């Protein structure tokens, strides 16, 4: 992993982690196009720079980390449970799904789901307009929806946002709960890979990792802010269309 590739992957991770367009899918495709080998160290690099995204959430939502929001974090923990259990049980099966065709198909499926959801979704009818208002029942169903993110190309953010909208959250609250829910998910995945593969990194690798980490944090920090502003005026239709177009391009490249 050289510095330039680390910066490119850091930018991609920072932009895509909290948008409903699958960071894993983009990283898989970018790595193939950059000619980055699928070694354990390089795969661990892609997971570990997700820790930077966690820090970006902490920086943007530091007001939520106080005793008065204890119940909110209990709900986040509840929402994490389904993904944690299924991911642990079927981890070996999930690894076999990491391919460009699978990513392409799931991009299209996710895009269609967003377009269909936005056709019937009425934000004025949503009872939950603030992330602190999420109920325990809503948190559990959002967690169930997030399980689909185990399929590469589906998007963790996309799955949890769709689940939240179906449970009665408005777009902004759906996105923000997805941000917070990313903390235990990314911490678990990144921490596990760091403990498992830290011995694979040489001094040069650690330099690239630091550069990718910092790049990911900066980009993710501003992406979160801009995404929330975007949702104050627009819907997820543009993301649905993007997913479909990108998915079609991926399948065309994979089968030509």
TrEMBL record:
Report the GO molecular function annotations.
undecaprenyl-diphosphatase activity
Listed transmembrane segments: 41-60, 72-91, 97-117, 177-195, 207-228, 234-255
Q: How does it sit in the membrane?
A: Multi-pass membrane protein
Locations listed in the record? Cell membrane
Question: Which keywords does this Swiss-Prot/TrEMBL entry list?
Answer: Antibiotic resistance, Cell membrane, Cell shape, Cell wall biogenesis/degradation, Hydrolase, Membrane, Peptidoglycan synthesis, Transmembrane, Transmembrane helix
EC numbers for this chain: 3.6.1.27
* Pfam families given in the database record: BacA (PF02673)
InterPro entries, alphabetized: UppP
Q: What reactions does this protein catalyze? A: di-trans,octa-cis-undecaprenyl diphosphate + H2O = di-trans,octa-cis-undecaprenyl phosphate + phosphate + H(+)
Q: Which family does it belong to?
A: Belongs to the UppP family.
Instruction: Fill in the misc note.
Output: Bacitracin is thought to be involved in the inhibition of peptidoglycan synthesis by sequestering undecaprenyl diphosphate, thereby reducing the pool of lipid carrier available.
Role description: Catalyzes the dephosphorylation of undecaprenyl diphosphate (UPP). Confers resistance to bacitracin.
Tell me which HAMAP family the record gives.
Undec_diphosphatase
Return the protein name. Answer: Undecaprenyl-diphosphatase
UniProt organism field: Pseudoalteromonas arctica
Starting at the broadest rank, the lineage of the source organism is:
Bacteria, Pseudomonadati, Pseudomonadota, Gammaproteobacteria, Alteromonadales
Q: Quote the gene name from the UniProt entry.
A: uppP
């Amino acid at each position: 992993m050289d510095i330039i590739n680390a910066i490119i992957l850091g930018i991609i991770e920072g932009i895509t982690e909290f948008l409903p367009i699958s960071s894993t899918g983009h990283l898989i495709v970018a790595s193939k196009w950059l000619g980055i080998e699928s070694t354990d160290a390089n795969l661990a690099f892609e997971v570990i720079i997700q820790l930077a995204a966690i820090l970006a959430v902490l920086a943007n939502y530091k007001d939520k980390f106080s005793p008065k929001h204890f119940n909110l974090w209990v709900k986040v923990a509840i929402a994490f449970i389904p993904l944690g259990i299924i991911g642990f049980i079927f981890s070996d099966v999930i690894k076999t799904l990491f391919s460009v065709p699978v990513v392409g198909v799931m991009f299209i499926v996710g895009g269609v789901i967003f377009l269909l959801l936005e056709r019937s979704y009425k934000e004025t009818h949503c009872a939950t307009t603030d992330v602190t208002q999420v109920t325990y029942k809503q948190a559990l169903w959002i967690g169930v929806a997030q399980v689909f993110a185990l399929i590469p190309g589906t998007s963790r953010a996309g799955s949890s946002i769709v689940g939240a909208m179906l449970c009665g959250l408005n777009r902004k609250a759906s996105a923000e709960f997805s941000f917070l829910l990313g903390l235990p998910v990314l911490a678990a995945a990144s921490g596990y890979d760091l403990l498992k593969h830290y011995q694979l990194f040489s001094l040069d690798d650690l330099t690239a990792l630091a550069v990718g980490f910092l790049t990911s944090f900066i980009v993710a920090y501003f992406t979160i802010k801009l995404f929330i502003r975007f949702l104050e005026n627009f819907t997820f239709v543009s993301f649905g269309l993007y997913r479909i177009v990108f998915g079609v391009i991926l399948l065309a490249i994979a089968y030509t």
